[in-house]
User: What shape does this take?
Amino acid sequence: MEKALLYDTTLRDGMQGENIFFSPEDKVKIAKRLDDAGIHYIEGGWPGSNPGAQHFFEMAKEMTFKNAKIAAFGSTRRQGSTCLQDANIQALIESQAPVITIFGKSWDLHVESIMQNTKAENLAMIKESIAYLLSFDREVIYDAEHFFDGYKACPDYAVKTLEAAVEGGTKCLVLCDTNGGSMPCEIEDVFRKVIDHFKGHTDLIFGIHTHNDCAMAVANSVTAVHAGATMVQGTINGYGERCGNADLTAIIPILALKMNRDCISNENLGKLLNLSRFISETANVPPVNSRPFVGKSAFAHKGGVHVSAIMKNPKAYEHMSPERVGNVRRVIVSEQSGKSNIEYKAKELGVDLGENGVNGHQIVSSIKELEDYGFEFDAAEGSLKLIMEKLTDQFVSHFELESFRVVVEKDKERPCYSHAMIKIRVGNTTEITSAEGDGPVSALDNALRKALTTIYPQINDMHLVDFKVRVIDGMDGTDAKVRVLIESRDENNIFSTIGVSEDIIEASWQALADSFQYKLSLDDKNRTI
Assistant: This one.
């Protein structure tokens, strides 16, 4: 089995993506998770460029990594200078990182027009920088920036830059598609020619670093491996400048499961989804549901024909088992659903449909009517379960609304604030409470909690984490229906509920009440009112 080396640059290249930021402390947490997942190299940043990167390397000195090597990133020495005089080179050494990755220019456009340098001096910068860093007993990886563009413009000179790196002593040449404009066929052609050129250097390995400007970063990386690359550089979730870098959450399972490369253990492969989610949460960037392998929708099935088939054999509509990467199969219930979707979902949610199938047909019909009105249960499985229980006479209500009133006040001295008064019935008892909040939904939430907490103390474990409002059809102006989605969580569960109405407060109440009913049904399924 051929070896593949995984090189993560989320903490440096990934941070160059728009709206992506990690504090030094965040980077330490991420580095630990990357190491635990079996990544071979973790690029921690450019210590010569900012204090945050320097702080990370200071903390990294005290850390022990079981799988990964920490790499510091930087450039070759400046033109007309020496390595000893170059502050960035010295910062790389002072980082004490066991691996140093430096980049140099491969494209004559950059050498002569951007840097206003000479080709000869650029070659000297590459060779001398690598040799100098190697003298400090570090592993040195050379990133040939803009290599594919440089090769297409002037192949002889682009190859000379690699020769200079090899003469300097590096054992790893990484060819970079920095602008992200190359096609897989170009990557393969150039890669094979370069490897053939250096066929006499048996101890030399090659790597690939791609960007996603043509949506080809993963394809180009995989193509390079097919053509002979050993190291693959990328970021978790594809974070990076412009359109991002090659996404390791796709590349890793492709290498391990599709190309049979020795790169990660089965145990660590199963951590991939959690790794993706952890870094997404740390970056405060919502996860992309459609992301292959680790996205929420990666193994989601909506069409009735699809669901009917996977109930017999999942291979019918899945290219692999979702559990291999820590994901799960999901069946979505919507107006496009058939009886198979309902049966699968009912079993998943723990709702007994009976054995004659009548309930399944009734639920399908009711779901389609509700979605025609504006409900959408793709992202509201909490409400879906409650509806299934109501339609099959299994629903146990923990409270009933009698009435509520919400007042929103604003004066010139203070921002808007809301006050809610709520009257609910719990068994034979009527509870009337009131509370304030930052907005009407917050006030309703606080009032409902106040009414229920003495009876159901477990309510304190539940928190609202997301609130979304969408106008279903804006043609009716302020009379249009709105859809409200609420996401809640407790210590063990995340669940979403939905409400639809022409009135945003009523829609919000529907979703809010469902979230409390769902939480209580999880904790006390046998309680009766």
User: Anything to note?
Assistant: The mean pLDDT is 91.
